[in-house]
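Researcher: Structure prediction, please.
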Amino acid sequence: MDQQQNYANHKQIVPVVHYFFVPLGLILIITAIVYAVISIMHGEQIFASLLILVLAFISALSIPLARGFVLKVQDRLIRTEEDVRHFKLTGEWLDQRLTIKQIIALRFASDQEFPALCERAVKENLTPTAIKKAIKDWKGDYYRV
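Model: Predicted structure follows.
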């Protein structure tokens, strides 16, 4: 990444997924539906058209599922990293009332503001967006996709 990460630019787009696979999956489903409807209307190749339709749905659904599985693993890793980081800085584990989304947002806080911001997030039940906006010294996460 060429520039320092901050609240305004921390969200990442994966071009191959967002601009290629997702549109291609939608086109595949639409095309398969059209083909199935035409085949049913003409009474031709109904089995083949329905098979193509099912395969199109399976293929298209695998894209968000695969991405979701990867993000879930990353979320678990971030939770563990931030729990260890909090223990290293304070001698205590993270408060169990913090949600995974809050913890993911807290990862951007510098070591100096991290413990206090964790406490504030619990006491005020801050949203992830509010946590990110409250960070003064942003610590970039350049590995999340």
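Model: The chain has one domain: 14-134.
Researcher: Thanks, that helps.
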